[in-house]
Write a structure and sequence with these properties.
mainly alpha
Length: 140
């Protein structure tokens, strides 16, 4: 599983497991907490959208609870299930969508293209839970 830490030099470091709330050490001025979703692997094109979702949910939590530990705990409770599922999906898709040679690409992508032409609604519906999500409906 991926985690995110932003240190003084702003280097992003993957670590396990993913911390969603601000760790006690990160409260110093030297370290900052950053959104965890932007570390999404590039296999389902959701990193930017997840960062926007994070910002909206965090803003809702801060509005409801002020700048507090309660806000961050609420944010974590609301975001962790979706983020975990999206990142797991992206990691699973990496093996499918990043074939390294022409033979494995043809063997994988050919049947996928055929299925998309024959059953487009079914093929695309598998991603509805990702792309149909509306963060505006998140209740804090």
């Amino acid at each position: 599983s991926f985690g995110l830490r932003t240190a003084c030099n702003r280097r992003v470091i993957a670590e396990s497991p993913m911390p969603l709330a601000v760790p006690r050490k990160a409260r110093s001025s030297c370290r900052t907490w950053s959104n965890h979703s932007s570390l999404s692997v590039p296999a389902n094109t959701k990193g930017s959208a997840m960062a926007i979702e994070d910002a909206i949910v965090l803003a809702k939590c801060l509005h409801a609870h002020g700048v507090s530990e309660a806000s961050l705990k609420q944010y974590e409770r609301l975001r962790k299930p979706r983020t975990t599922k999206v990142l797991a999906s992206a990691r699973a898709n990496m093996g499918v969508f990043h074939r390294s040679n022409a033979l494995t690409q043809a063997a994988t992508y050919g049947p996928m293209q055929l299925a998309d032409k024959l059953f487009p609604d079914f093929v695309r519906s598998r991603q509805d839970w990702i792309y149909g999500y509306d963060v505006r409906h998140v209740q804090v």
